[in-house]
Amino acid sequence: MTRFAITILLALPFFGGCGSLHGLQDWEIERKIADEKREQQIKIAKQEAKQKLAHFLDAAKQGDAEAQYQLGKGYLDRVSGEGFLNHTIDEKEGIKWLRKAAEQGHADAQFRFGWQYVNTSPPKDPVEGIKWIRKAAEQGHAGAQVELGNLYSYPRYEIFPADLAEGTRWYRKAAEQGDAGGQISLGVCYCYGRGVPEDKEEGVRWYRKAVEQGNSNAMALLGSCYYDGDGVPQDFAEAVKWYRQADEHGDPFARYELGKCYYNGEGVPQDTAEAIRLFHRDETQLSYWGPGRELMKWYINGDYFPDEEELERWFTQLRHLAEQDGKSEYIVKEAKEAADLLLALEAKGIRR
User: Fold this and answer.
1) What percent helix, strand, coil does the chain show, rounded to 5?
2) How confident is the model at residue 49 (pLDDT cuts 50, 70, 90)?
3) Which of 170, 197, 224 marks a domain boundary?
4) Confidence band, pLDDT 50/70/90 cuts, at residue 13
5) How many CA atoms lie within 13 A of 224 on its CB side?
6) Number of separate domains in the chain
């Protein structure tokens, strides 16, 4: 028998005859079993969720603060920390139960209740919201302490003026109890001298504490410190290491910085194709540091060639950003860069 004939005989079960029929039937049976198992799991999960909802509702009506908090979160988020599911969001009902728990001194409820009043769009009642956030912060709630630090450091409402030292004080309270958000915010304060004397080495120390907790934002910031030589010796390879780790955790800023390193050949061999691949994962996020904006610069330089749909989207987004009207330094800078890019594109004869 020839080698060709032997090969055909061995392949028959995959290309035809009883072998392929039996394989198909086995696959269909396995899929049906898997579907039935999945449906049963969903049914059980719904039953358990219904039981939990009934339990929380009963306990909440009897004045149990934790049950009131979980019930309030469940109505606002669909899934509470305890895992019960509401099929519809009911903000009014959620706030009602959060208030009941907050009034009993439940710190998580106080923070979430205050957050709902401050961070909705438009905000319901910033004064009332901040009052409850402060109550939670004074109880040692780390998330509330970070939020209060934000409100002092980056005031959004004309309730009290910016007070960087007070903002830093609240960040420190959260950081010292191990909260990664507080550690990052305190690190930023030291790196940029916000509310404390500038001390980049101290800033890096706080970033590292958050990195040890697996925080991707801290990894990206640590990468930037190595890239710029802030608080540590400049080391592009070390910067790439931290950018890559943060990117693997889904951090978009790190992905952007990693893409730039590939484009410029800093810490890695120069690789424009890899830079473009990284940027294309987020090119629609056209923020000040956005990959899309960097791609436009490469397009102007002749290193990247978008299709017509992408080019049209860029122009639409650029016009929107250039027409922004705001007082903050960030918005002014973003609008100016967008306007400059539009001018550069038009100078190349590229108009839409």
Assistant:
1) 70, 0, 30
2) low
3) 197
4) very low
5) 17
6) 4
